[in-house]
């Protein structure tokens, strides 16, 4: 449900832009996430990331790195 809300928010703030997807029958919304807890040996900062796909097309992604321990 969060993915649908994210799509609707995008449509609201970007009225002059658009995304076109072919109708392939059953459209899936799939999300992936990953986290690396203090994986950088130099500064021990953590990295997290996610991406969301609709019908095999990426619609949202983000990568963040903690600035402190």
UniProtKB/TrEMBL annotation:
It comes from Trifolium pratense. It comes from the Eukaryota. This is Putative copia-type protein.
